[in-house]
Amino acid sequence: MSTWLVTGAGGMLGQDLLARLAADGESAAGLDRTALDITDSGAVRAALAAHAPAVVVNCAAWTAVDDAEAKEAEALAVNGTGPRVLAEACEESGAVLLQVSTDYVFAGDADTPYAEDAPTAPRSAYGRTKLAGERAVLETLPDTGFVVRTAWLYGAGGGNFVRTMIKLEAVKDTLDVVDDQRGQPTWTGDLADRLVLLGRAALAGTARSGIYHGTSGGETTWFGFTREIFRLLGADPERVRPTTSEAFVRPAPRPAYSVLGHERWKPAGIEPIRDWRSALGEAFSVLVETERQTGVTGQ
Known about the structure:
The protein is α/β, with parallel strands linked by helices and 299 residues long. The chain is 42% helix and 16% strand.
C-alpha cells in the first residue's frame, strides 16, 4: 500500500476521500487548512517530509466564488500559488500530485460537452485563479501532475445545494429554481473513488498525466436537479418552478453550460463516473439524515 496525503481534508471531498482510503486500508494523512497552509513553502515541504506520500491530493481551495470577485489576490494565493508550492514540493520528493479544479475555467457558452483539451476562457475571478493552479501543476509536473476538474459537488460533509433543498422543502410551499444553467450534479463519494483509482493508475504507469474531468454522466439544470430531490423526498416536484438566472444576480457570473466530457478515463483503465441520478439515489438517505441531524443540533 502507498501513503497518501490529502490537503483540504476538512472539506466535503477531503472527508469522503479519506473515508475511501481508510476503507481500502491505505495509509493516508489528512491535513485541513488549520494544519497546513498550502501557500507556505516551508510548511508544505515539512509536511511531505513527515508523511513521505507517494500521492498528494490537493482538495484545498478558495471556494467562495462571489467573494473572489472582490478578493482575487487572496483567492489567487490559495488557488494558484498553493498548487504551485505543492507541485514544487512534489517535484522534489517524487510524489504524484492530483489537483482538484473546476468547470469555471471554461466560458460556459458551449452547447456540447467540453473536452479535456477544450480552450479555457474563465469569466470570473474564481475561474481565473483555479486556472492558474492548473497551469502551475501541469508546468511543474509534466509527467506526474494530474488535474481533475469537477462541478456541482454535493456530499454529506458540508453545506451544498442538495442539503439546502432538503431543508427548504420542509419550510417552503414552492421554490423558484434556475432552469437556464446546465451541468452535472456530482457526488463527492463518486469523485473520491475516481481520485483513488487515478492515483493508483498514476503510480502503476497506466494513467497519463494531464487533465481529467471528474463529473457525473448525464446533465440537467438546477431546476431539474431540484425536482429530482423533491421526488426522492416523496414531495410533489410540481412545487418546484422554473426561473432564469436574471432572478438571482450575483457578483460572479455562473456558467450557463458546465457539461464536461470524460474521454480520458477509459484509456487509463478507469470507468467514468455514473449517471447523476443513480449517484443521487444512492447518496440520498445519508444526505437526508445528515441534514436532519444538523437541524436537531443547530449546527
